[in-house]
TrEMBL record:
Signal peptide: none annotated. Residues 7-193 form the Ketoreductase domain. The keyword Oxidoreductase applies. The keyword Oxidoreductase applies. This is Short-chain alcohol dehydrogenase. One of its GO terms (molecular function) is oxidoreductase activity. It comes from Mycolicibacterium rhodesiae (strain NBB3) (Mycobacterium rhodesiae).
Length: 276
């Protein structure tokens, strides 16, 4: 895989999972990479692996919810590399809990990281991407940004919002003839630490849920996911579905319209009875 020689790419949440795989694959494809995460230990692992490839890397602790820090970070990355071509707004958290029992603050936290983190990253880097003459915004939504399931109202809200924001942005860039591609990413189940790192409402069997997620719901490796995402960026696709599960469920939702809700709630109740 190549095609990113001379490009500068920024990846948030690069200390684990999809973000780590994206950063490494970008480095292999010739890009210079600015990586960040709140998990500095995981980030150090990613940094070492990129150094071993021989690609230029800048690693920083960054919480994507901290807007002012994000603004300063964007300036620092541009100063370091001289430009920025691509931002991968990937950092995210999972949460499980029915609306009835989920405290307001938990819904706000998921929106802060999963939605506002993406908005912050997009807005602080957008002027630089336009100035680069060859920019790309890659925002990670989810299959749960295409359909909803019980127990995921907070996460579903954030991921639907990421999709709405990103699809509007793509049209704006095209209307203004700005040299910036925009891609929304909808991964299905990817083998990462996301459920192990998740939080949940009181009474949810998080351990049981993590086991089910790890054993039954994830088929795609983060490395494969990164390759699929980078391929979509090369082709400037508006939307990329990652994994066979994502492709199949997207078709079911399109065929059934709102009818999927009756179907999926039954399936979810059987598959993860301890989710809500
Ligand atoms: N794994 C899946 O099945 C799956 C499916 C659909 C979408 N996604 C999305 O993919 C993205 C990456 O998730 P992953 O599966 O690699 O999970 P992961 O938990 O392995 O990695 C997420 C990374 O984001 C970091 N992070 C969390 N909060 C942060 C914050 N406030 N600021 C900066 N970094 C923060 C974490 O420390 C972690 O390193 C997320 O947006 C997630 O919602 C994952």
């Amino acid at each position: 895989m190549d095609g990113f020689a001379g490009k500068v790419a920024v990846v948030t949440g690069a200390g684990s999972g999809i973000g780590q795989a994206l950063a490494i694959e970008l480095a292999r494809s010739g890009a210079s990479v600015a990586i960040s995460d709140v998990d500095t230990e995981g980030l150090a692992v990613t940094e070492e692996r990129i150094k071993a490839i021989g690609a230029p890397v800048k690693a920083d602790r960054l919480d994507v919810t901290e807007r002012e820090a994000f603004e300063l970070y964007a300036d620092a990355v541009v100063e370091h590399f001289g430009k920025v071509n691509q931002i991968y707004n990937n950092a995210g958290i999972a949460y499980v809990g029915d609306v009835e029992v989920t405290p307001f603050k938990d819904i706000e936290r998921v929106m802060d990281v999963d939605y506002w983190g993406v908005v912050n990253g997009t807005k602080v880097f957008l002027p630089h991407l336009i100035a680069s003459g060859d920019g790309h915004v890659v925002n990670v939504s989810s299959l749960f940004g295409i359909f909803s399931v019980p127990g995921q109202a907070a996460y579903n809200s954030a991921k639907f919002a990421v999709r709405g924001f990103t699809e509007a942005l793509r049209q704006e860039m095209q209307a203004k003839r700005h040299p910036v591609g925009v891609t929304t990413v909808h991964p299905g189940g990817i083998k990462t630490a996301i459920m192990r790192n998740s939080t949940a409402a009181e009474g949810v069997d998080r351990e049981g849920l993590t086991n089910t997620f790890d054993k039954k719901l994830t088929r795609t490796t983060p490395e494969k996911a990164a390759q699929i995402i980078l391929d979509a960026v090369r082709k400037d696709k508006a939307r990329v579905l990652v994994g066979a599960d994502a492709k199949l469920l997207d078709v079911i939702v399109r065929i059934t319209g709102s009818g999927y809700q009756r179907l999926f709630s039954t399936v979810v109740a059987r598959l993860v009875p301890n989710a809500h």
